Each structure stands twice: as structure tokens, then as C-alpha cells.
Amino acid sequence: HTQAAAGAVGVIKTVMALEHGTAPRTLHADTPSTRVDWTKGAVRLLRSAQEWPDTGRPRRAAVSAFGISGTNAHVVLEQAPAQSVEESAGSANPPVDTPDVPLLLSARTSPALAEQAARTAQFLRSHPETDPAAAGWSLATTRAGHQHRAVVLGPDRAGLLDSQDALAIGTADPAHVRGTTADSATGPVFVFPGQGSQWWGMGRELYDSSRVFRATVDDCADALGPYVDWSPVDLLRGEGDDPDVLHRADVVQPALFSTMVALAALWRSLGVEPGAVVG
């Protein structure tokens, strides 16, 4: 179970299919299920990669991810619009190839952010040969992210420059948004993972070595006792003669919950206070 990365591979695969115009082969399905009448409807398995022809309309595909712990995600992806290159001869300001180019700016202070906007605008004015889309890529991938941040959007070079000028002098503009990142005092977020991350004896060392972890697991075991026919302590310490009990959803879910609650208590005892707990 890939937990937080569930669905990521499917999205990457689909983006590449949209880009290259090729529908990849359906993996691990060489023998289609006999429970489906494949002669009806338009759904079919691809035994081999097939060309995804250009019909004059954008290619679209849906990606579904169903987590074993109950999380469902669905995303519809559309082929990126074709870039139009319309460079006018002798033009000092060639048009932006991609609509709504974002420029990501950040600085340690609010005045420094305004100065960054002014410098970026001056650079684009001084280098008309620079593609704003390339500048946006560089700003997003090569610059460190500081606490004060802004995003400048523009459909063309002139729009980007106007929005950056507004940001530089502190004037409101619908084409840019600014804000600050969460203060470090907010704390980290603890994520309790779903089913698939368990193993027999997964809490043995911590249970035997940490008083806080052990006490929290014992509290969970006492609370679960009236409702279960197994021992959370034995499971986490790898004791007993039935490791296969972890294949039962009614066992693994409370066991993981007990482990995560105990881990959270341990981290908090060491001074790591979460800003939120999810999962």
C-alpha cells in the first residue's frame, strides 16, 4: 500500500499517455475477467499499447485510486493546450507562448518581496528575448522558498510586468496574490497511516524501551479489551502463535490506531507538539 502516494503513479502514467498520444497496455490483465461482458459497451482492456489519435479535441482521461483503508480519489486530466509561437519580426517584446504564466516570488520580509518583484520586472524589461514561461520555471524550481511569498499571473509579457509593478509598490491587483507561510510555531502534522503499513511485532522495541509508549498502548488495550478477542500488546510485541491475525481488518485497524496514538504520545513527550493530527 503506497499510503500518501496512492494514485501518483497512475497520474504520471496518464500525463505521459496524454503527452505522447499513446494509450499504454493494461498491465496484469492478460486474461480478462469472465464476470464482465466485454462484448457490450465501450470499455475494453488494452492487450498492447495503442495510438491515441488526434481528433481535433483535447485528449482526456480519468484516474481513480481506491485506498484499502477507504480513501477514494478521482481526477480527470486533459491534454495541455498547444503552444502558439507567433514571434513578430523585429518585435522587442515577443508574445508569451503559454497563457497565464505564473511567476513565483518569495523573500524573508515583505519589503524584500516587493523589491524582488521590482527586480524581476526589470530583468524581463532588460531581456526581451527571455521567455516568461522559462523565467517562471526557473523561479519555481531553482529558488529557495522563504516565508513571504507571492504569485504573479499574466496572459502576456505586458500583463506580467503590470502585475509585478503593482506588487512592487504595494498596489492591489487581481493578477497577483501574496501571503506568508505558516509560522514554525504551528508545529508539524502527524499522519496516521492506513492499512498496509503493519507487521507482526511492529511495536516490540518501543514497548519494551519507552515508558510513555508502553503506557499508551496499555491504555488502548484496556479500552479495546471488552470488544476484541485478541491482545493488542501481544500483537505489537510479536507474541502469540497466529501472525496471520494481521490479515483481519478488524484487528489491524485497532492495532495501527494503538501504535499511532502511542507514537504521538512519545513524540509529544519529547517536545514535538503537532499542529494537527490526520488519518
From TrEMBL:
Q: Which GO terms describe its biological process?
A: fatty acid biosynthetic process
Keyword Transferase on this protein?
yes
Q: Which residues form the Polyketide synthase C-terminal extension domain?
A: 32-152
Q: Where in this chain does the record put each Beta-ketoacyl synthase C-terminal domain? A: 1-29
Malonyl-CoA:ACP transacylase (MAT) domain span:
189-279
Q: Which GO terms describe its molecular function?
A: fatty acid synthase activity
Checking Pfam families in the record gives:
Acyl_transf_1, KAsynt_C_assoc, Ketoacyl-synt_C
Task: Provide this UniProt record's keywords sorted from A to Z.
Answer: Multifunctional enzyme, Transferase
Q: What is this protein called?
A: Polyketide synthase
